[in-house]
Specification:
- There is one protein chain.
- By secondary structure, the protein is mainly alpha-helical.
- The protein has one domain (2-135).
- Helix content is 66%, strand content 0%.
- The protein is built from six helices and no strands.
- It is globular.
Length: 139
């Protein structure tokens, strides 16, 4: 129960942070991606802030075998670049540029009951299910 509560609180904090920084606003994302027009670099500052938290956290985590709740710590071990990774990155970028959402902000934006994030999340779910079906990977 403590793990689920920690996950819920972490997700809520993440969602509030995305909302405060306006990363749930597609026009904010499009402004960042429009490097030849009215470029808005504020998303870069949000990314730098995220890295400032993530890099030390991973450095600390690598020195431990369990989480704070004594679960086995499982960090990613792969570092190769393969075709599925490249194709996924390209599709992610296309979807991000067209929709102005990525998964976290889209889920956070659902709280406002707007149609655009609902359509984006529905398309994201269809894409995830499609990959599972096409790859015949039951995970």
């Amino acid at each position: 129960m403590r793990v689920q509560l920690a996950a819920l609180v972490s997700g809520l904090i993440f969602g509030v942070g995305l909302t405060i920084s306006r990363m749930i606003d597609p026009s904010k994302i499009i402004g960042f991606l429009d490097v030849t027009g009215a470029w808005d670099p504020s998303l870069a500052l949000v990314m730098i802030g995220a890295l400032a938290v993530t890099l030390p956290a991973f450095a600390i985590a690598r020195r431990h075998e369990t989480t704070l709740f004594q679960s086995k710590l499982q960090l990613p071990t792969r570092n190769d670049i393969d075709p599925p990774l490249v194709i996924g990155a390209i599709l992610f970028g296309i979807g991000w540029g067209i929709g102005g959402f990525c998964p976290g902000p889209a889920l956070s934006a659902l709280a406002f009951g707007l149609i655009k994030p609902m359509v984006f999340v529905a398309a994201m779910i269809v894409g995830m299910v499609g990959v599972q079906v096409l790859s015949k990977n039951p995970d």
